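Record 1 of the preview.
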Amino acid sequence: MNNDSLVWLNGKLIPRREATVPILSHGFSRASAIFDILGVHVGPEGPMAFRLDDHLKRLMQSAELLEMELAYSTAEITEAVRATVKANSLGRGIVKIMAFWSEEAVIQLVLDSKLDVAIFAVPHGEEVVLDQQQTLSACLSKWRKLHPETVPVGAKACANYLNGYLARKDAVSRGFDIGILLGTDGFLAEGSAETVFIVKDGVLLTPPLGRVLSSITRLSVLQAVPEIGIPIVERPITADELSAADEMFTVHTGTKVEAVARFEDRQLEAPGPLTQRVMSLMNDIIQFKNERFMHWFQPLT
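->
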């Protein structure tokens, strides 16, 4: 952990070692914090944020779904992201935005105050390894995805990630890299922190929204692949279809596309031909080689 980095906390840049909250804070003891995380890439004119507007829209949506309100507007957070990146001389890395109640709440569940905001700029390196496309092994988790009538699964809430934590822990204990969750309806949901795509008969398939997080990388794949002639369908996917997939890959912020080489006891071509095309497309986009998607990047200088 780099304690010398600077964190934007409620309007001030402070050393990371000072960016703390009380143990009994509502965000910590009640697990009520929300967050968003986005990639920063080095472009021709300096650091560029990948789809910053969409990430901040999702952050605000997370707050709305949980009936919370941030202390800062989207415009203010945009400027705060820019200031944090500049103060830390961030090149390739990530920005993590946390919104939380720092006030103590021993037994109180509902607070009326607005959420504090902290912004971290983390470079590619020891803490966060980015862009290392490796093949994965995956299994069906023994756990099910949270039901959308219990909590808003569309909210990027820290508490929701206990579900993903259990799926990942189960997978690793069984010798796999990631666990894939089915929903309580028996259809494919997502991984611990990644969207799952499968290929069958030349068509790219992924579950619809409603029971999965509205991933920005997922959205990017859905919007980009039609440009290279790949048919894509959002629909419910059964466990049997998952097991019979011709190809499988996951997407997330850190590494846009990762091929699955083994699903349970079945070996898959990884990357398969269609997965390779998606990989190449997304790599070209984040390396500023595809002008059609340059509008996804926002300068941070």
